[in-house]
Input
Amino acid sequence: MTDTEELIVTAMHLQADRRPDGAAVREALARAGSRRHGPRTIGMALAAAAVVAIAITVPFVLRHARSTTPAAASPNQPVLWQRAMAYEPGWLPADVVEAERSAQATAVLRQWSMPVGSQWPGPTVTITVQQTDEPPRRTDDTTVVDVNGKPAYVDSTDTPPGHRTDVTWRPEPHLQVRITVDGGQDHRAIALHVARALRTDGTKPFRAVVDPGWCPYANLGAITRGPSVGGHAPEGMASCTTREQEPLAEVDIFVDHEPELTSGAAVTARGNQGRYAKSADGARQTLSVPLGDGRYLSVVASGGNHPGVRPLTRDEVIKIADTAVVHDAAYVNWIGTR
Output
């Protein structure tokens, strides 16, 4: 794959691997005057890669009820998202449960790890499905194996912090799958077992806490994570941007137990009173409104000061908040399951 595509996948893995304190991240970003990418944002821009590695990984605990009614995927999701969800694990190490799903325009990531309260860390298994025409990246240490009749490239390390194996192959044209196993002495064997047992008939939808309704830009992203010690519930993020790499403008929609904004002009959104503010240079607009169930919906619109891309109006930011589709905790009942 290209350097850009590798950076995208690396950023998605960083968000799954690193878990800084949420309050510390918010405080640091506020001091820097930077736009908050939020605890669940997905790395859309090369210019934001450094922030991606830090700010997108704040964990939370999701206390949720089980739902017996399957929920459909959002109709405005990219076709790739449901196509990628067809790649379903046919085998997983004992005890690991699904903890995260995240996506952007050309990649979908799912991760399984040990449940909260486990007495031992166990391995973490990540499946990344990416749309690309580039061959997998190879190094001098890469070995080639067979995965269900396809050549696969294996990279393993036991150098600290180490204990990691990546198995990457192309099961069909324009699509690449990567199995990553972190932790344990048998990480290579686990990764190969997961790869060779991978099914292609999965029917689960890509589910998120929030889906965008009206969005002025075409490229979508989303992330939902849980459960991890030290956070809140339920939370998630959706986004839309002008383009996947180095977007000229971006909208992030958060559902969180804390508002992005606690002061500013009073506005009405979703039938409730919220707060709205615009930065002095007009490059950032923020709206936060209570949902009435202890959660807040926040919209952060960034950019727009470029030729051909105008800043959004306040009414458009309100429209984004009004039309966002917010789901209850039962919508993400895949969390904590096999």
